[in-house]
Amino acid sequence: MRKVVFALWMLILCPVAGAENTETQQVLERLDAVIAQKESYRSRKEAKIGELKQKLRQASSASEKYRFCNSLFYEYLHYQADSATRYLNLKEEINPDPIFPDSKAEHTICRAEVMSVMGMYNDALLELETINPGRLGEETRLKYYYACRSCYGWLADNIVDPQVKQKYLEKTDLYRDSIAQFPLNETDRTILMAERLTLNGNPDEAIPMLDKQLATVRDMQYLSYLNYTMYDAYRAKGDVEKQIYYLAQTAICDLERVVREYASLQKLAWLMYEQGDIDRAYCYLNCSMEDAVSCNARLRFLEVTEFYPIIDRAYREKDEHEQSVVRGMLMGISVLSLLLIVAVFYLYHWMKKLSAMRKSLYEANCELKNSNATLAQIGKIKEVYIARYLDRCVGYLEKLEQYRRSLEKLAMTSKIDELFKTIRSDQFLRSEREAFYREFDKSFLDLFPNFIEDFNKLLVEEGRIYPKPGELLNTELRIFALIRLGVTDANRIAHFLSYSLATVYNYRSKIRNKAAGDKERFEQEVMNL
Q1: pTM of the full predicted structure?
Q2: DSSP letters along 160-219, please?
Q3: Are 167 and 161 in contact (CB under 8 A)?
Q4: In sequence order, which residues have a C-beta less than 8 Å from that of residue 281 and are 6 or more positions away?
Q5: Which residue has the higher pLDDT, 409 or 511?
Q6: With 80 as the cut, is the pLDDT of residue 344 above it?
Q7: Is 352 exposed, middle or buried (0-12, 13-18, 19+ CB in 10 A)?
Q8: What distance in Å separates the CA atoms of residue 474 and residue 476, rounded to the nearest whole number?
Q9: Which of 23, 165, 185, 460 could cross-link to 159 by cystine, CB 3.0-4.6 Å?
Q10: In this predicted model, what pLDDT tens digit does every residue of 16-68 receive, in sequence order?
């Protein structure tokens, strides 16, 4: 929670720093995209060079050939030093002195420029010392001063000895003063003044001047110079974030105008290494080395190789660390996968057991439901039969009372013959028994209205039993009605129906033989109706 609060305070208190960081990240991402598209820029450069070569082959006059050789020289100067030397030599062979009076001095300046690109600064200075600037035209003399200033500036950058370095810096400043005497365009003059202010310890005065020019200039070469000069100013101030930003802008300009001799990307690589961005540092350094080798810029190559082993070792250590992390993660994932497989099998085993338990529980539940239904049915049967037979008993007692009174009357009136006749008659018992059976049949069919139909489904078609008109149940149906009620003992059935035991056995055997299914399970199936 404290970390979150701290982060929120940082966002509130430092919005400008956050914006700058975002701008730096955006320009670095753009640089990454430009590096990824480097081959497409190179193809365009090669196409342009191809067009110039075609024009050179088609040129008829010496001046045209000289002009195209000069264009090819400058196309190749910071792109491929060997080819630049070739077209410089071709310029010297054409040598149109009448048209270009300063051509010899210009060739020498161009040769010095090629030597500077290749890192041969002392040789370049020896070449430049052969020129007498007082005899040159204004344009060639300005070019000469620029060449001298660049050469001494590069020497100063690559000298470790403070005294010698200061000597070359003074020489550079001297030629800068000489350049300032010429009528320069606004951008050149701004770059010159900003360099001087930065070297004199006033970068804060140089930065607004450069900012103003950066807002208006569109030429890629000038943008490269302006951004690099801005980098120098912020390096003097010690602002690393801005150094990264303007070096990245410089590198973008260098790569988009397809030059291979540059200092921006290798300097940026070192800054990224110091910031801990090893991947970008390694990528930028590889790009710089590849371009330096292709251009034959030996000094740039040496500059790269000075700290290439450091960044390469850091990159390899980072790569090895990442690989070890990946291996650890893969090992962890493998262990987790194994545990997951074990867990799945364990879960599957328990799910099977749970499924079996659920099935058993379901079956037990079904049996319980059936038992409850049976109990409910038995309860209903008991309720119905108890109620009905209580009524029947009460009615039977009333009839016995009436029968007793009728006998008493006959005895009191001395009608002895009629009394004996009545006593010997079974009409009363027969009528009562028939009434009892009707009441039983009615009660049973109220409880099991589909009994006759369901019972006949258990029999073969020719053996099915139906009661006669006016009957509810016949003897066979009544026997199996008692069995359905749970009265399976033959003695009890015979007693209930006033039949002999043999008669009951015969009825049961006869109907069992007509069963459509298993005869042994017939009576059990009747009990399940």
Answers
A1: 0.59
A2: --HHHHHHHHHHHHHHHHHHHTS---HHHHHHHHHHHHHHTT-HHHHHHHHHHHHTT---
A3: no
A4: 269, 270, 272, 273, 311, 314, 315
A5: 511
A6: yes
A7: exposed
A8: 6
A9: 165
A10: 344 446 888 999 999 999 999 989 999 999 999 999 999 988 988 888 888 89
Q: How confident is the model at residue 105 (pLDDT cuts 50, 70, 90)?
A: confident
d(CA 170, CA 347): 83
Amino acid (one-letter) located at 364: A
Of 281, 253, 255, nearest to 267 by C-alpha is 281
Phi, psi angles (nearest 5°) of residue 468? -75, 165
- Report the alpha-carbon distance of residue 259 to residue 292 in Å, rounded: 10
What is the DSSP secondary structure assignment for residue 393, as one 8-state letter?
A: H
Look up residue 466 and give its two tokens: 């139906």
Q: Which residue has the higher pLDDT, 320 or 205?
A: 205
Q: d(Cα 504, Cα 511) in Å, to the nearest integer?
A: 11
Q: Taking the CA atoms of 257, 36, 293 and 195 in sequence, report the sign of the dihedral they define.
A: positive
- CA–CA separation, 316 and 330 (whole Å): 20
In our burial notation (b when 16+ CB lie closer than 10 A, e otherwise), range 299-312 reads bbbebbeeebeebe
Residue type, 180: A
Assigned token pair, 424: 């010997």
DSSP annotation string for 329-379: HHHHHHHHHHHHHHHHHHHHHHHHHHHHHHHHHHHHHHHHHHHHHHHHHHH
Question: Is-contact 486 448, C-beta < 8 A?
Answer: no
